[in-house]
Amino acid sequence: MVDWFARADVDGGVVRISEPHVNELLSANFWWLRGDDRDVVIDAGLGVVAVRQAIPGLFERDPMVVLTHAHLDHVGGASEFVDRAAHPEEAGILAAGVPASLYGAELFDKLGIDAAEEDIPELMIDVLPDAGYDPAAYRVAPMTLHRLLDDGDRVDLGGRVLTVLHLPGHTPGSIALLEEHTGTLYSGDIIYEGALIDDLPNSDVAAYRRSMQVLVDLDVSLVHPGHGNSFDRTRLRQLAESYLRRTA
Ligand SMILES: [Zn+2]
To answer: Does residue 132 have a pLDDT over 70?
Structure first.
């Protein structure tokens, strides 16, 4: 049995969980935040291996999972959680079952990505989690939401509060979570180090540009993104301004 998840404790009762055996295109971070009354998990990974068994303690306090958007690498594990929340504009895709495959060509096809120019990996994981695992059986189950989150809504964990920022562009219902008290932004796929994806069938460059303008002006000290390493406000501004220049 492979150690599927990597777990890192960051400051302030926050745990970063990632999936190192997943191809870099799909290897996402998810974040476990502990409040006084309740825990929240922001995103839930690809769903190849059950989170409940692999991350001891994660489910002890009946956490709510908040989904930044409805892509397989962020929501694959979400059906394990009893209490799920996301933006209303992602609810339809989640209810229908998000497009998913561990085979590169099939996945690109399902996502509507024109892969003519790209080098498509045959399999999106570099090892099987156990010898009997069948990648062809992988899918993301349809799921309902128990709470809809829109811009300005607050998620109160007791002792820590997250404010929802609706920042569309990557997808119509992409949200980030801002903890104002610590100046920490959980940005999902809205912004991270690396090529941002704005050419999916439901992406919107004009909306993405408006979202980037919000991020340029946002007063935060730390960004925990959906992919790659965390960064500070200076880097946030650089990344957002570079997107605005590139798409001008
Ligand atoms: Zn995404």
So the answer is: yes
Tens of pLDDT, residue by residue over 60-70, are 999 999 999 99
What is the per-residue pLDDT across 140-197, written as a single tens digit (0 to 9) for each? 999 999 999 999 999 999 999 999 999 999 999 999 999 999 999 999 999 999 999 9
User: What CATH number was assigned to the domain covering residues 6-246?
Assistant: 3.60.15.10
Q: Calculate how far, in angstroms, residue 97's C-alpha sits from the geometric centre of ligand 1.
A: 15
What tokens were used for 199? Answer: 């050419």
CB 197 within 8 A of CB 203: yes
pTM (2 d.p.) = 0.96
User: In sequence order, which residues have a C-beta less than 8 Å from that of residue 10 and are 6 or more positions away?
Assistant: 16, 224, 230
Distance 69 CA to ligand 1 centre (A): 7
Angstrom distance (rounded) from CA 141 to CA 8: 28
Residue with tokens 């993301």: 140
Count of residues in the chain: 248
Nearest-angstrom CA–CA distance, 39 and 185: 17
The DSSP code for 80 is G
Distance 230 CA to ligand 1 centre (A): 17
pLDDT at 11: 84
3-state secondary structure 17-79: EECCCECCCCCCEEEEEECCCCEEEECCCCCCCCHHHHCCCCCCCCCEEECCCCCHHHHCCHH
- For residues 74 and 66, what is the distance between their CA atoms, to the nearest angstrom? 10
